[in-house]
Amino acid sequence: MRRLRHLADFHRTSSTNRALGYLMAFNAGAINAGGFTVLELYTSHMTGFMSMLADHLVLGNTALVLAALGALLAFTAGAAVSAMLVNWARLLGLRSTYALPLLLVALLMLLFGLVGSVTMNWKTLFAVPMTVLLLSFMMGVQNATLTKMSNATIRTTHMTGVVTDLGIELGKMLFWNRLAGVQQQKVRANWSKVRLFSGLLGMFFVGGIAGALGFKQWGFVCVVPLALLLMLVSLPPLWADGRKLRHYFASRAT
Questions:
Q1: d(CA 108, CA 45)
Q2: pLDDT for 51-72, tens place per residue?
Q3: Kind plus residue range of the DSSP H or E element containing 54
Q4: 129 has which bridge partners?
């Protein structure tokens, strides 16, 4: 429980980064796979949306062009909001620097879980349901937060970079060092990175299975427990910052 309280704290260690990365990879896997079950779109997959935008622009399918554009803009907006929250919290010297955007993700997940089936029918200017934009925005917030928190070593909403980095370390591990002339030239795998990237990949996969099964059995409400867990992780640093935040908002009101 003590470790859980420090997962979203400003003061970072490699172990808290790794633990939060695993949790958020599971979360992204569940949302991504579960979202595909009901929307038939992978809402954290911006590479796919960019390709979709290009393909259907050539094919003249305006509705799908708008859909791809909407998802891309929503993801970008989420990343921008995360950066603004993190930088604002840093200026105030808050412990909840990373807890603020993670709490936003938790609240959006709770909203998605409780009213997702309703927002699926709310068409937007981008020719997609509000649910698609909500999930893309949410994944943008999450990805930017974990990227800033870990100095770009951990990304959790898509696995292309993770698989690439894991492949690089496996290549080092399998390299035939007999070709190296001196000890300093020998190529060695970074085992901490191998464990990190393998863990992220595994948790994303397990989260995907859980999300697909959960959406199939219970629908949108299955994300509510995940949202509550993320709120539990986010609230301790915010609680610790209570006095600073009250003083800040009181000074702004006068």
A1: 19
A2: 888 998 999 888 888 888 888 9
A3: helix 46-59
A4: 123
pLDDT tops 70 at residue 170: yes
CA distance 22 to 232: 16
Q: Encoding tokens for residue 205?
A: 């996969």
Give the pLDDT confidence of 115-158 residue by residue, as tens digits. 777 777 677 777 677 888 888 999 999 999 998 888 888 888 88
Go through 61-91 and write b for each residue having 16 or more CB atoms within 10 A of its CB, e for each that does not: eeebbbbbbbbbbbbeebbebbbebbeebee
- Count of residues making up the chain: 254
- What does the CA dihedral 234, 6, 77, 116 come to, rounded to 10 degrees? -40
Rounded to whole angstroms, the Cα distance separating 88 from 202 reads: 33
For residue 21, with 0-12 CB atoms within 10 Å meaning exposed, 13-18 middle and 19 or more buried, which class applies? buried
User: If pLDDT is split at 50, 70 and 90, which confidence band does 252 have?
Assistant: confident
What span, in angstroms and rounded, lies between the C-alpha atoms of 85 and 241? Answer: 14
Residue 123: helix, strand or coil by DSSP? strand
Beta-carbon contacts of residue 129 (< 8 Å; ≥ 6 apart): 39, 119, 120, 121, 122, 123
Does the structure show a pLDDT above 80 at 251?
no
Going 101 to 105 to 110 to 112, the CA torsion angle's sign is positive
Of residues 45, 30, 14, the one with CA closest to residue 159: 45
Calculate the dihedral angle through the C-alpha atoms of 89, 93, 96, 98, rounding to the nearest 10 degrees.
60
In 3D space, the residue among 62, 104, 53, 114 whose CA is nearest the CA of residue 83 turns out to be 104
* DSSP element (H, E) containing 114: helix 99-119
Please give the helix or strand (H or E) that residue 176 lies within, else none: none
